[in-house]
Write a structure and sequence with these properties.
Elements (H helix, E strand, L loop, with lengths): L3 E6 L2 E9 L5 E3 L4 H5 L19 E4 L4 E4 L2 E2 H7 L2 H10 L5 H12 L8 H6 L7 H15 L9 H27 L12 H10 L10 H14 L6 H10 L5 H13 L6 H14 L4 H9 L20 H16 L5 H14 L2 H5 L6 H11 L7 H22 L26
Antiparallel strand pairs: 1-2, 2-3, 4-5, 5-6
Bound molecules: carboxymethyl coenzyme *A (CMC).
Length: about 425
């Protein structure tokens, strides 16, 4: 027999269906709550509110589990490539070798950016943060690709997916080239996606450039680890914007803006800046731990804590191991890594952090590895965005294909009741 939940309000009882997910997660379906009772629920930050049913990503924060389409993140990071993982997220199954090759070739068809986009980039100051430029450029892609995507047509969807993946990587790197005053590079269709990222970023017209394959491999893995994370802030933004039937580029541009904040994707940059500050001030990790615990001090230990994980973030484990491997294989010695490890150990043994289940998250080590790979600090959150792109696309597609209604939360109004208008001379 299916379960139900009973709510009693003002002496009346209301019964609601209980939905059980494929991993036995339980949700009370309150879709009819307001219709039958006149009440709504209040849940700031959506700590207890599910907004959709989704088949894409499973996350168990208590157990520290993350799976894309049923596949463990640990397996994907070790055995799959980023575009293979992207295909899995967006279309639901791992691609065959032939399908993957076709997918890669189809993405290549869309890697050229309209030259007029360069006029838009020229309008930004060199000092602009790459995430702001990326959000604006992603939105501007709509102007150059105005045909709206017909979500009832698989071919249209597939083309839209390939176009977005192809173009986003190029404009993401252009934000860096602009900040450096370098000429903007073109995608090289004879090379792979992640190798292209390195060329687009670092190749200069003054000489040949070859990306280090170890760096390419490490980046591929990092992109996989960031590829989706169910209904996080930026992804739910993408779904929300898309729910008004705004286009894919417009929705993703909004996702980029949401990701930028230091409580979300911007944390990777903030972690590195924090570690640099600790290093500059003599490496006293205890002092910063005390600041993080002090309620009068706004300082938080960046890269620690997570809304959903109340255990080790499985991505942080993989990144920490990768950071060790990459640093030793590239022969990089980074004092910031030592500070990070000291800080991590101190926090893990500290009552404040233990009591609140605050563990290192994905961003705690990612900045160190990006730094070792030669990625500038300002670009860290852009790296997150490149990795998160397939997740945003997959979630947008699922929401549109499932014909989900427009996102429109309610509120409890706590402002003034009706008042008489006060004429200007009486205020
Ligand atoms: N340093 C110190 N105290 C913390 C921290 C931290 N990093 N994170 C949470 N707390 C405390 C917080 O002060 C609160 O204490 P109390 O119960 O005494 O008031 C308690 O832990 C619960 O925190 P919360 O802010 O209610 O938790 P939340 O779920 O709303 O916030 C978070 C989650 C990730 C925004 C938060 O942990 C944080 O600000 N962390 C630092 C930023 C960061 O690393 N963000 C990256 C998240 S992972 C990548 C991604 O998916 O974007």
């Amino acid at each position: 027999m299916s379960k139900t939940a009973i709510l009693e309000l003002d002496g009346k009882k209301y019964e609601f269906p209980v939905i059980v997910g494929s991993e036995n997660e339980i949700a009370i379906d309150i879709n009819k709550l307001r219709d039958v009772s006149g009440a709504i629920t209040l849940d700031p930050g959506y700590k207890n509110s599910g907004v959709c049913k989704s088949e894409i990503t499973f996350l168990d924060g208590e157990e520290g589990i993350l799976r894309y389409r049923g596949y463990a993140i640990e397996d994907l990071a070790e055995k799959a490539s980023f575009l293979e993982t992207s295909y899995l997220l967006i279309f639901g199954e791992l691609p065959s070798a032939k399908t993957l090759e076709q997918f890669e070739n189809d993405i290549r068809k869309y890697t050229l950016i309209n030259e007029e986009m360069k006029n838009i980039i020229d309008g930004f100051p060199k000092t602009a943060h790459p995430m702001g430029v990326l959000s604006a450029l992603t939105s501007a892609l709509t102007a150059f690709n105005p045909k709206s995507l017909n979500v009832d047509n698989d071919k249209d969807i597939y083309e839209g997916v390939c176009k977005t993946i192809g173009k986003f990587l190029v404009i993401a790197t252009w934000t860096y080239r602009k900040s450096m005053g370098y000429p903007l590079n073109y995608y090289d269709n004879t090379k792979g996606y992640v190798e292209n990222f390195m060329n687009l970023m670092f190749s200069l017209p003054t000489g040949p450039y070859t990306a280090n394959p170890k760096v390419v491999d490490a980046l591929d893995k990092l992109f996989i680890l960031h590829a989706d994370h169910e209904q996080n802030c930026s992804t739910s933004t993408v779904r929300m914007v898309g729910s008004s039937h705004a286009g894919l580029f417009a929705s993703i541009s909004a996702g980029v803006s949401a990701l930028w904040g230091p409580l979300h994707g911007g944390a990777n940059q903030a972690v590195l800046e924090m570690l640099e500050e600790i290093h500059k001030n003599g490496g006293d990790t205890d002092k910063y731990l005390a600041k993080a615990k002090d309620k009068e001090d706004p300082f938080r230990l960046m890269g620690f804590g997570h809304r959903v994980y109340k255990n080790f973030d499985p991505r942080a484990r993989i990144i920490k191991k990768a950071a060790d491997e990459v640093l030793s294989s590239l022969g990089v010695e980074d004092p910031l890594l030592d500070i990070a490890m000291k800080l991590e150990q101190a926090a893990l043994n500290d009552e404040y952090f233990k009591a609140r289940s605050l563990y290192p998250n994905v961003d705690f080590y990612s900045g160190i590895i990006y730094r070792a790979l030669g990625i500038p600090t300002d670009m860290f959150t852009v790296m997150f965005a490149i990795g998160r792109l397939p997740g945003w696309i997959a979630q947008w597609k699922e929401m549109r294909v499932n014909k989900e209604p427009i996102g429109r939360p309610r509120q409890v109004y706590t402002g003034a009741p009706l008042r008489d208008f006060v004429p200007m001379e009486k205020r």
